[in-house]
Amino acid sequence: MIQTFQLDYVYPVKKLNIEAGGKAILRDNFSDFRSENLNNTTGFYEINPTQTNDFTYQQNVYSVYNSYQLKLTKWTAKAGLRLEHTSINAVPVTHAVIG
Prior knowledge:
The protein has 99 residues and is mainly β.
């Protein structure tokens, strides 16, 4: 599941345009990894349980920005700053080896 939240603000003042905003992207993901080895006796691939795993993880990205745009007669100058933080929390689901 992906959730996105965004807020933008624009404030024009004569020849100056000020923008600010923020964004959050929240993701819940699932990944599975399978490692298989060829069994030369049977000719079939078999799952290698020591190198096979499932992962559930949350990936959250948060960002904020601020920019200024100055309009001159023939030119326009724009400067800004963007900050971003990413947080990942992974939980492995280990497969039990029976035998």
